[in-house]
Amino acid sequence: MMDKARKAASFNTYELTCLIHGGADIVKQRRAAFNRVEKLTGTLDPSKLPCSYGNMDREQAYDEGLEWGKAAFEDGITHKHTIFDNITPRYVLSNASPFGLTTVMFIPTLRLQATAEQRAKWLPLAESGKINGAYCQTELGHGSFVRGIETTATLDTNTDEFVIHSPTLSSTKFWPGAIGFSCTHSIVVARLIIRNKDYGPHLFMVQFRSLSDGLPLRGIDLGDIGLKMSYNGTCNGYATFKNVRIPRSDMLMGNASVSPEGEYKKSPHAKLSYATLVYVRTVIVRAVAFQLAQALTIATRYSIVREQGLGPNGLATTESALIDYKSQYYRLLTLTSKAYAILFASRTCDAEYAILRKQQDAGNHGGLPYNHTLAAGLKAWATQAASDGAEDARKCCGGQGYLMTSGLPEIVASVTATATFEGENYVLWQQVGRYLFKLIDTLADRKPIEPKMNYLADGWAHFSWMSPLATWRPSDGCVHVIHEPCSARGEQFLDANVQLSIYRHRALRLIFSAYTALRSSSLPPAEAWNEHMMNIINVARAHVEFVVLQEFVSHTSTLPASPMKTVLVNLRSLFALSTITNPASINAISFIEDGYLSLSQLSTIRDLVNSLLDKLKPEIVALTDAWDFTDASLCSAIGMKDGNAYETLMNWTRQIPINVNAKKDGGVYKSGWDGWIDPVLRARL
Amino acid sequence: MMDKARKAASFNTYELTCLIHGGADIVKQRRAAFNRVEKLTGTLDPSKLPCSYGNMDREQAYDEGLEWGKAAFEDGITHKHTIFDNITPRYVLSNASPFGLTTVMFIPTLRLQATAEQRAKWLPLAESGKINGAYCQTELGHGSFVRGIETTATLDTNTDEFVIHSPTLSSTKFWPGAIGFSCTHSIVVARLIIRNKDYGPHLFMVQFRSLSDGLPLRGIDLGDIGLKMSYNGTCNGYATFKNVRIPRSDMLMGNASVSPEGEYKKSPHAKLSYATLVYVRTVIVRAVAFQLAQALTIATRYSIVREQGLGPNGLATTESALIDYKSQYYRLLTLTSKAYAILFASRTCDAEYAILRKQQDAGNHGGLPYNHTLAAGLKAWATQAASDGAEDARKCCGGQGYLMTSGLPEIVASVTATATFEGENYVLWQQVGRYLFKLIDTLADRKPIEPKMNYLADGWAHFSWMSPLATWRPSDGCVHVIHEPCSARGEQFLDANVQLSIYRHRALRLIFSAYTALRSSSLPPAEAWNEHMMNIINVARAHVEFVVLQEFVSHTSTLPASPMKTVLVNLRSLFALSTITNPASINAISFIEDGYLSLSQLSTIRDLVNSLLDKLKPEIVALTDAWDFTDASLCSAIGMKDGNAYETLMNWTRQIPINVNAKKDGGVYKSGWDGWIDPVLRARL
Q1: Where in chain A is the domain with CATH 2.40.110.10?
Q2: Architecture of domain B432-625 in CATH?
Q3: What's the pLDDT score for residue A271?
Q4: B70 pLDDT band (50/70/90 cuts)?
Q5: What is the C-alpha to C-alpha distance for residues B364 and B661, in angstroms, rounded to an integer?
Q6: Contact A401 B409 (CB under 8 A)
Q7: Which of A427, A589, B42, B303 has its CA at 20 to 30 Å from residue B520's CA atom?
Q8: Region A134-147 average pLDDT
Q9: Closest alpha carbon within chain A to B660
């Protein structure tokens, strides 16, 4: 069945693989790297039960993470590639590896925030693995709100040292990756204190462990925070400092600096430190596209081979494959369109970040607010889409999707973490909203705004011309004035510009209406913000969805004509149109609540979605194969490339230690039977 | 902070506790039972790390399940109560216990489908725990589609026996609870074969294990299916049968029967076997209300004590509690309203089932289709609401919600299973749709329908009077004719009847529009069904949401006037109105796509939701306390009644074995350091 489904595709899968990964050379390099690491970790043979599925106690999980982490980290150095700098060989973000923080946080932070001398000292050590770095920011009592950090770094001018200290229980560093037992050094975020003056959070290089025996240095208490939903291959940990002394020169002084006498020199650009955040979020956006695609690859393959029921409405005479049920391929294909939407958006995010870094190196930080907002918004949108999508893909596999051996629970559990870390999504949405409103304030002052945001300027011109703020009815918080219903009909809805106009109208209407409601509110600013918070979040999401569609359009329309392009263009239309009518879409009513789309237009859109689904159904296996996941990286009994779901599942199941051991006793779990079951049977109750 | 938040409530929490559990006596009995079991399992002391959080390998998880299961099962027998017949002391469905299937499936099935003699033989043994029963239906290749079951039971008239056999790999029984290592007997669903004639799936009593030593009987291969997302306290297992012989008299012949000569007597009412399904689904609906409430209890308490940021828009001078952010109490309170909505709906479901059983005992099975649909629809709706809601409550706790020690991952993982088992939700939605369309066929034939569904009859009268099917435009699949916009304004939207009218209009419009589109389709029936499947699912959901609101209204409006009633009525309005405007609501556009509600009416509804949220915010702790969860049943470091989240979290964390062991070595995880980290540091790469 798999072969037939695979052959049904109209385009060359390898061509799409190259598009996804950025060229044939990279595809070749990646395949070689995965093969080496999988060989080294003994995971190449798909008939062997992956050890993590047999048992998963805390120690075993960490041991496995150490093995994978070492193999991936050393492969990158030995073969001079960065493939595993940001993701593990299972496509989880590298902070899932005990050696991953050094590449994903430690080195990038040094590059951005250390002095030339500090970089010369630390980077060679970190890049060659002679030290294993981490990044300590989050505390038991303080997450996304960095200014609340309580750990202190107090200057002692007599000894020219900083004293790192944890003054309270809530100041305990809690969550940082690899600090439990793995890292040797860490950058620590602590409040800079000079002569009792608090200069707020700054970065300090602190050695945590002896390089000779791994023992924590004096005054540092380290440990593991225990089992998590996923990421158990690393030791997210806790750390407390009892008057730990470090040389003054180990404060990262690339930006702000402190002299031996205790003179504080401010950062030339306070926001420069945000660059690390922007970087990490661009990494996350790309990573979750692949994690969602992993879940979809497994669910799609299983849906091809799994039979269930007598077809739609039970009217067939033989059992039908899951994939033939509309609800199944509706869910899988719309989610697939989202995975591609995230991928293309991440391309833009990466490119913009590269430009920003060039500008910053030239001392120009003007692009930061735009890039910070772009990365924050895409991170919030993509991580939510990927988390919800991976879980729905898992549910598409029924009971089997609930088994660890399906690989899906681990994927879902790891991707859902991204909605929380590196900026909790609800916090990020509000940052996006704040940025949008600031731009409109600028426009209201008749000043120019960031050119990349000019669709706001156009909307504003249109809107302010049509009615000055004064004549408004903010009482019902709606902008009525810029409302002209959509005029598209029939196939016109397949036109990228029509699709963009719908998303643009929705975003502009929500932005201006929330802006007006907020700025004209009689409440104190904080209360007004709270009053309208849910709308502000909707505003941010609508803006980001417009941007995502925009990038989907730009990355597909520029492709040369080919069967692959046709498929990707249909996929883009499916994304654009199903986001309006999909029952699971978030805040879809804002597309139509002002009457912009009529009932019969919605009905047309639903019909088009149906025909797009039927067009794309034969492509579904190729669209997931194209991501080029190895069987070992999926680690799924039901999602392997060969489609032998039941054989692999039973084969793995019989290898589970509790079964192997019970077989030795003739098929009974002795301790359980003797200790608990037999006593119940014999009890005279 | 907890005390202050607790005291803020306007009503008596205990009064609500009694309402939730059904009276003061039951509350008293439950508290005693939980206390006995928690004492017996050593989980009363909240300062002790629950063992499952230290480690969770396959064996330990099962051992813990055996201990809890035995304690709960025996407590029920000893103290003559049924508290733990359907849920564990952690509020998971009893199939999470190795002794739970006997009460939740085995005994109920015997009662419904065994003969008097069979009941007399088996029930006393099962009810006293002298045998431990299970229920074997699902196979590796066959889940919700029972007719696809492949296991055979062939009559051998020479020996007056049935031969139970697994003919294929896909016929392997896979998933049934407690069969891996725990059960002694099981009801097995197998195809009845007499003289090569296949009579389809029937039920057979099969002994799996020797009562003396627990060894599987000859020809039966049993084992565990391995780690799952949750339910690891029991041994969901696999079973294959190699020509296993049982007495002919061990087929459950309460309905269909087979004579020694092999004459088959049909069931008087084929659908009687559905009664078990209906029963189990009513149990699930009630259970998930409590599981969602568990997640909300933890998230609410943590949101009270957790501080994060400088308030809305960062304008405050001191850090604010999470609960003070609109997005936080919007999510928590709307989810709380859902938990109560599910609870009240389950009351109706239970009552209807009790009536059905009475009727069936009197030989009247007429109520089955209605009850089957009610239970199926509520199961699908409630399990989705509870799964999504529990996960969102978990996300409300940020990073801490990702820790096993928060208790939330386990709750989320166990509740999400209910969306899949005992009837996969997408299958159930379509059954509901089928039932609704059948009723309309009946109405079209001018015949009466089930009185409890009369809102359809009213809608039909209205609609058919306004336009005969002929004059329709099914092309765009919309009913235009029964569309009169909602006339409500301002506070009128707080009126239960206005709220009901909105839900009723939406349900009727979707039902009639989908019905017309389907019945007037030119496609073959199966293809037509597939073409419209997503709409049919929307139809079913809209109907069920109308029913849920109806029951929320009926259970609250009948209460005597009291502060508690005022709160519950506000909670009902919050449920009714936020379901329309909540960005996370499923298919909310169907409330407005026909223009039934205008933009300014939606704006009014959003304002009312805001004011309801502010009214209910002081009640939030009481509304979760009222469910009366013990600390041990929540098993959460951040959700204990006292609100000492950080103290408990750090206290538990330090007790985690990997930390305790590392401390003995001076703070290093020796094997990991020596085996993996040290080699990386020393490698010359």
Answers
A1: 132-267
A2: Up-down Bundle (1.20)
A3: 65
A4: very high
A5: 65
A6: no
A7: A589
A8: 91
A9: A223
- In chain B, what residues touch A680 (CB-CB under 8 Å)? 70, 73-74, 99, 129, 132
Say which of B70, B327, B647 has its CB closest to residue A426: B327
What is the tens place of the pLDDT at every residue in A467-492? 444 334 434 444 444 467 999 999 99
A433 touches chain B (CB under 8 A): no
Q: Which of B57, B311, B602 sits opposite A57 (nearest CB)?
A: B57
- Residue A545 confidence (pLDDT): 98
In chain B, what residues touch A530 (CB-CB under 8 Å)?
311-313, 324-326
**A376, A281 Cβ separation under 8 angstroms:** yes
Chain B residues in contact with A170 by the CB 8 A cut-off are 646
Partner B contacted by A480 (CB < 8 A): yes
Residues forming CATH 1.20.140.10 domain(s) in chain A: 432-625
pLDDT tier for residue B477 given thresholds of 50, 70 and 90: very low
- Minimal Cβ distance to A403: which of B226, B535, B650: B226
**ipTM of the modeled complex:** 0.96
Residue A581 touches partner B, C-beta closer than 8 Å: yes
On whether any CB of chain B is under 8 Å from the CB of A238, the answer is: yes
Find the catalytic residue in A139, A422, A545, A551: A422
Instruction: Kindly identify which residue of chain B lies nearest to residue A147, measuring between CA atoms.
Output: B309
Q: Chain A contacts of B672, Cβ < 8 Å? A: 62-63, 66, 98, 181-182
Res. B445: pLDDT tops 70: yes
Provide the b/e sequence for B224-263 (b: ≥16 CB within 10 Å): bbbbbbbbbbbbbbbbbbeebebebbbbbbbbbbbeeeee
Task: Please provide the average confidence, as pLDDT, over all residues in chain A.
Answer: 94
A330 touches chain B (CB under 8 A): yes
Nearest-angstrom CA–CA distance, B1 and B12: 19
A559 touches chain B (CB under 8 A): no
pLDDT band at B230 (very low <50, low <70, confident <90, very high): very high
Band of pLDDT at residue A466, cut at 50, 70 and 90:
low
**pLDDT in the model for residue B277:** 86
User: What is the SS3 assignment for A216?
Assistant: strand
| In the block, residue with structure tokens 């609609």 | B463
Per residue in A320-354, is it b (16+ CB within 10 Å) or e — as a string?
A: bbbbbbbbbbbbbbbbbbbbbbbbbbbbbbbebbe
Question: pLDDT tens-digit profile of B491-549?
Answer: 999 999 999 999 999 999 999 999 999 999 999 999 999 999 999 999 999 999 999 99
CATH homologous superfamily of A132-267: Butyryl-CoA Dehydrogenase, subunit A, domain 2 (2.40.110.10)
Q: Which of A98, A129, A226 sits opposite B403 (nearest CB)?
A: A226
Q: Is A138 marked as binding a ligand?
A: yes
Task: Measure Cα distances from B259 to A479, A526, B21, B255, B272 in Å.
Answer: 76, 79, 47, 13, 21
Give CA B232 to chain center in angstroms: 18
C-alpha distances (whole Å) from B413 to each of A60, A666, B398, B629 are 22, 32, 17, 19
Residue (of B156, B206, B204) closest to B185 by Cα position: B206
Structure tokens at A186: 């860490």
Would you tell me the crossing angle of helices B645-655 and B657-664 to the nearest 10 degrees? 60
Interface with B, mutate which of A593, A610, A613, A665 (most B CBs under 10 A):
A593
Residue A102 marked in a binding site: no
Tell me the shortest Cα–Cα distance from A459 to chain B, in angstroms: 20
pLDDT for B315 equals 80
A272 touches chain B (CB under 8 A): no
In sequence order, what are the residues at sequence separation of 6 or more whose Cβ sits closer than 8 angstroms to the Cβ of residue A669?
Answer: A658, A661, A662, B62, B180, B181, B235
Report residue B223: phi and psi, to 5°. -170, 175
